[in-house]
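Researcher: Structure prediction, please.
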Amino acid sequence: MLCHIVWCTKYRHPILTGVIEVETKTILAQTCTEYGWSLKAIEVMPDHVHLFLEASPDEAPSTIARTMKSISAVHIFTAFPKLKERKFWGSGLWSRGCYYGSVGAVTEESVKRYIENQKSNIGGTE
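Model: Predicted structure follows.
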């Protein structure tokens, strides 16, 4: 199953930049490898994440997203403890919701191109 998953930081805080962006990409890629998911494309925007991955059809996208969000939040808060103090006191890193899209009517190449072009589309529509 090919799946496009998007989720936002809590309160849409634009904190996923610089070293935090790099660390987020790294931990998400490592998590995909550890769980046997094939990462096709990733883009970390200042306030949200786009992932395009392939997983077994018996794995629910919601379970994949929950796993990715949980592991990455723990990792990022451990690596950047000041972040929790300043922006996310008393709450998690990620908002509750997610977008899930399966690839069928849209080609795999179209989804990859969309994700890869996110940074150049800032200010336009998502």
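Model: Helices lie at 18-35, 61-79, 81-86, 108-116.
Researcher: Thanks, that helps.
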